[in-house]
Design brief:
One of its GO terms (molecular function) is hydrolase activity. Keywords: Hydrolase, Magnesium, Metal-binding. Its cofactor is Mg(2+). It is a single chain. This protein is mostly helical and 389 residues long. The protein has a single domain, classed as ADP-ribosylglycohydrolase fold, CATH 1.10.4080. It has 17 helices and 2 strands. Strands 1-2 form a two-stranded antiparallel sheet. Helix 2 packs antiparallel against helix 13, helix 8 packs parallel to helix 13 and helix 11 crosses helix 12. It is globular, with a radius of gyration of 19 Å.
Length: 389
């Protein structure tokens, strides 16, 4: 039997519904990533009809990566597995350990299928270069307005899956895992929001996206530092406007990714969620990974198509990580409880902190407006370059 199918049977046999849906979330992310890889950077009109989107490409279709076998995840899956392995090995979020694993991924192919890294975002690559040069993971991430790609959002899900602490600690941890590569507050807020959305699906709340919005506002209104609080609330309002106004478009902009994933999650099955995410083109692997992770949680392991599980590669990478996860779990819904509650501060002593925002930094991050298409545009362009976010 295929390794993934056997894993699904093993997970189902535990009788632990929460744990089963958490594993489905991880597998959903990996499946979504792998299905989206061949279509990355394609325009909408270049995406095949929905019924032709599958683990194998339609005959004659030109993949973005013709030398990459079907069923191969990309940077999304690899970085998510780096985070998961770090959390399991450390028992908490250690930025130093996680950053080391990111460097092992890009340098040595750690957590990459065939040890081959074939896709990496520009902002992430620049941040990893700074990490390699010895910059602290608290300061290595891009912090300007244009450093809001979806590179830290796409890998976040394992944190939300393992974490059973309070909402405020989950949000703080979601912020912190973003810092090594993306430290602008917009990316931090997007990560905090997505973590709560995932928690909403895990807890089977009726409206997880709206619930996450309410919880995130409550967390930010109680934020300990007033200067940070005001920035986070401004960015939260910007996220709300994007979700309300923007049309799904599948770009690599972190808020666009959330908009498109939310639209995809309106579908009634796992495969339809992934196909819808891919149908918007552009950054298809990340959009379908972000949506696929949530869909896995929602529909469970039973909702994962068997043919897609059979076509997914890299079981030899996933199996030992999930085996450790299973060994640490219990038959109750509190699996990982004691460990996950520690996710606020890592053993490296890194405090829960965002960015060293001075007055100029706060002003720069808060002064933008939304154009008629809902795209954030810098109003007070302190750098003088007039770029959009």
């Amino acid at each position: 039997m295929n390794g993934y199918l056997s894993l699904v049977q093993t997970v189902s046999a535990t009788g632990n519904n929460i744990y089963s849906r958490k594993i489905a979330g991880l597998l959903g992310l990996l499946i979504g990533d792998s299905l989206g890889v061949p279509f990355e950077f394609k325009r909408v009109e270049q995406i095949p009809a929905r019924e032709l989107i599958d683990i194998c490409l339609p005959t004659g279709y030109n993949s973005t990566y013709p030398d990459i076998p079907y069923g191969t995840w990309s940077d999304d899956g690899s970085q998510a597995l780096c985070l998961l392995a770090s959390l399991l090995d450390c028992g908490q979020l250690s930025l130093n350990d996680f950053s080391d694993r990111l460097l092992r991924w890009i340098d040595d192919g750690y957590m990459a299928i065939d040890g081959h890294v074939f896709d990496i975002g520009i902002q992430t690559a620049e941040a990893l270069n700074r990490l390699r040069d010895g910059v602290s993971p608290l300061k290595s991430g891009g912090s300007d307005e244009r450093s809001n790609g979806n590179g830290s959002l796409m890998r976040l899900l394992p944190l939300a899956l393992l974490h059973t602490g309070s909402d405020d600690v989950l949000v703080q941890s979601a912020h912190r895992q973003s810092l090594p590569t993306h430290s602008h507050p917009r990316s931090l807020v997007a990560c905090g929001y997505y973590a709560l959305v995932a928690r909403g699906y895990l807890n089977q709340v009726t409206t997880p996206w709206e619930w996450a919005d309410e919880q995130l506002e409550a967390v930010y209104r109680d934020w300990r530092k007033e200067s940070e609080r005001s920035v986070l609330l401004v960015e939260l309002e910007g996220l709300r406007q994007c979700l309300k106004i923007n049309q799904p478009c599948g770009t690599g902009y972190v808020l666009d990714t959330l908009v498109t994933a939310r639209r995809a999650m309106e579908e009634g099955s796992f495969d339809d969620v992934v196909k819808t995410a891919i149908s918007f083109g552009n950054d298809t692997d990340t959009t379908s990974a972000v949506a696929g992770g949530l869909a896995g949680i929602k529909f469970g392991v039973e909702g994962l198509p068997a043919t897609w599980l059979q076509g997914l590669r890299g079981f030899e990478i996933v199996e030992p990580v999930v085996a450790k996860w299973l060994a640490l779990s219990t038959d109750s819904d509190d699996d990982q409880g004691e460990q996950a509650d520690m996710c606020g501060i890592g053993p490296d002593g890194v405090p829960i902190a965002l960015v060293n925002w001075d007055r100029r930094g706060i002003r720069r991050r808060a002064t933008y407006r939304f154009d008629k298409n809902g795209v954030p545009v810098i109003v007070d362009d302190l750098d003088g370059d007039g770029d959009q976010a």
